[in-house]
């Protein structure tokens, strides 16, 4: 915190209301050096027994001198930026007080503030290693969780795709016959086919009429839980809406199980399992009805 406030004092984000920020920054850096050396000693495997005058009572000159003398010389030189630089900083930091920095001229304060701050910051860096290690472990765990989530999502989509493909292998429409309410002269396939060379974009096409429909006969009562509808492939996807799906066991009483009001290319309608022999797809107004494929799934 002392190191952070030091930087805020000599490099403020907004102009300070008073002069003297560089001098305050120097003293704050001196405090952060004290706390850093104390923490480094605590973390050292060869930490000496704490002398009474180096207790956490503040960065007085005697306590800071003691900590300085106990600190590895190589570590100090590395933090100072080179061999011999630590001695130069020692003269600036030890046997000094906050008043000393305030008595320096402004140019000396401006030069000392970033130099002392950088020294303190490099002393603090090794202390952050355990935290960085924990952060890396945390990041690795998050990445692992994200990877697992991605795998689950991919497996979910893959599983859904496999299920849909499997469902199509049980399509009841392959053995069902169909009859449209009318047939447009352009072209149509012959029931029970849903594809033929003469009609590549739809297998039937009604006239424009009130509630055009197509009825599938399953030739027996079956369980039905989904209908997959592929719209006309070349154009006119807006026609045939709203598309209503109904089921019946006697071709007289019909139960609506699904309705599509929005334009679609392929629509899968899932609904609670119903018993049905006949399945009707109809339009709820005056329009055309033309579809490329209909699958009836148990």
Question: How would you portray this structure in words?
Answer:
- α2 packs parallel to α7 (about 105-125) and α4 packs across α7 (about 105-125).
- This protein has helices at about 1-10, 20-45, 60-70, 75-80, 85-95, 100-105, 105-125, 130-170; strands spanning about 175-180, 205, 210, 215-230, 245-250, 255-260, 265-285, 285, 290-295.
- The strands form two sheets. Strands 1, 2, 4, 5, 6, 7 and 9 form a seven-stranded antiparallel beta sheet that branches. A two-stranded antiparallel ribbon has the order 3-8.
- It is an alpha+beta fold and about 300 residues long.
- The longest helix has about 40 residues, at about 130-170.
- The protein contains eight helices and nine strands.
- It is about 40% helix and about 20% strand.
- The protein has two domains: about 1-130; about 170-295, Sandwich (Jelly Rolls).
Layout of strands and helices, then pairs:
Blueprint (H helix, E strand, L loop, with lengths): L1 H9 L10 H23 L17 H10 L2 H8 L4 H9 L4 H6 L2 H19 L4 H41 L7 E4 L23 E2 L3 E2 L2 E19 L11 E6 L6 E6 L5 E18 L2 E2 L2 E8 L1
Antiparallel strand pairs: 1-4, 2-9, 3-8, 4-7, 4-9, 5-6, 5-7
Q: Which term fits the overall shape?
A: rod-shaped
Q: What is the averaged pLDDT score?
A: 88
How much of the sequence is in beta strands? 15-25%
CA gyration radius, whole angstroms:
41 Å
Counting helices, strands and paired strands, the structural category is alpha+beta
